[in-house]
Amino acid sequence: MTATCETTRSLLPEWVRRELEASEAGLIDAHLATCDDCSAESQLVQVLFAGRAVPPSGLAHSVREHIASRTRRGRQQRPWWGLAAAAVAAVALGIGVVAQADPTAVVPIYATESGSADAWMSDDGEIAGAPALDDLSEDELAALLDELTPAVSGGSA
Amino acid sequence: MTSRGADDESPDAELVARVRAGDDRAFGVLVDRHHAGVYRLALSMVSDVGTAQDVTQDAFLKAYSAIATFRGDAAFRSWLFTIAANEARGQLRRQGRRKESSIDSVQPVASEAASPEEEAIRSQESARARTALQLLPEKQRLSVSLRIDEGLSFREIGEVIGSSEGAARVNYFHGIRRLRELMS
Predict the structure, then answer these.
(1) Mean pLDDT across chain B
(2) Is CATH 3.40.50.300 the classification given to domain B123-184?
């Protein structure tokens, strides 16, 4: 018993990361032993995974320091009396003041869980061979996926 | 800001709740846990080690600043990666730099921090594959790298690249097919 081409190709990232249960990995191994096409794809996934970049040592520390220094500096630049004066001015101008947990916080518009698609004015469609997928229905995407399958599979299932 | 160490195995959601309650050390654990993934995502977009480090720092700073807006509808990792991807795109816009779609203009992606020994054991094929990866359109490239490097699901990838789960799946398999063509 082996996995299908579709299952194998979908699980190759977990297979190469050794995140599959032994029984599931065994099915993938058995399929790869008999399917040249999936075996070739597994080799690509392996070399990609092996070549993934290693972050510079100390990056995590520098990230923590960056946050600490920026938040400290923000607080130093905006003393309490500055905020009070700003609040008085806002009231005088009829502007509502909304309290924030951290007055130094700069909340990016895109740091929300909705509307992220607007940030992706992707130029993919301008590049030859890159289909514009975002306007397609699920059925159209499934049909496109079917078109991709025979091009890279065809081994025993 | 300090870290409680890599031995803190609390789920991301629990750490986020602690940060929102004022425990900055919990955010340090999130930094330890996710900085490599954020860095790799940034590097796959900006193709420059120094800029990728800047993007990583700024992405975490913005996540920290905006954590009150995180509702938990998506996984913290997807949310963080979305911030990082947008930060990287902002960097590219500010630098006025666009990727060239030519194999001659793309250099292999490698970490400057890797030791000579690590570099030595990296196969030539890995370098070729990484170079080819840089030739893919952005969403295909991110779909492949987030799926293989970070193990994100297609649903999570869709959240990061602003597409549906189905579109992320098609982008991934398109990218894989294109890479196989480039590598053959």
Answers:
(1) 85
(2) no
Å from A46 to nearest chain B CA?
Answer: 8
pLDDT for residue B7: 52
| CATH class held by domain B9-98 | mainly alpha
Whether the CB-CB separation of B75 and B15 falls below 8 Å is answered with no
Nearest to A138 among B69, B140, B166 (CB): B166
SS (H, E, C) A17-85: CCCCCHHHHHHHHHHHHHCHHHHHHHHHHHHHHHCCCCCCCCHHHHHHHHHHHHHHHHHHHCCHHHHHH
Q: Are B170 and A111 inside 8 Å of each other by CB?
A: no
Cβ within 8 Å, pair B148-A49: yes
Distance CA B171, CA B152 (A): 14
Chain A residues in contact with B30 by the CB 8 A cut-off are none
Q: Which residue has the tokens 């991709």?
A: A148
What helix, strand, coil percent values describe chain B, rounded to 5? 70, 0, 30
Q: What is the pTM of this model?
A: 0.73
pLDDT tens digits, B132-182: 999 999 999 999 999 999 999 999 999 999 999 999 999 999 999 999 999
Which residue in B has a C-alpha nearest to residue A69's C-alpha?
B1
- What is the ipTM score, two decimals? 0.82
Cβ distance of B174 and A113 shorter than 8 Å: no
Give the three-class secondary structure for A105: coil
CA distance B106 to chain A (A): 16
The backbone torsions φ and ψ at residue B175, rounded to the nearest 5 degrees and listed phi first, read -60, -45
Interface touch B66/A105, C-beta < 8 Å:
yes
- The domain locations on chain B are 9-98, 123-184
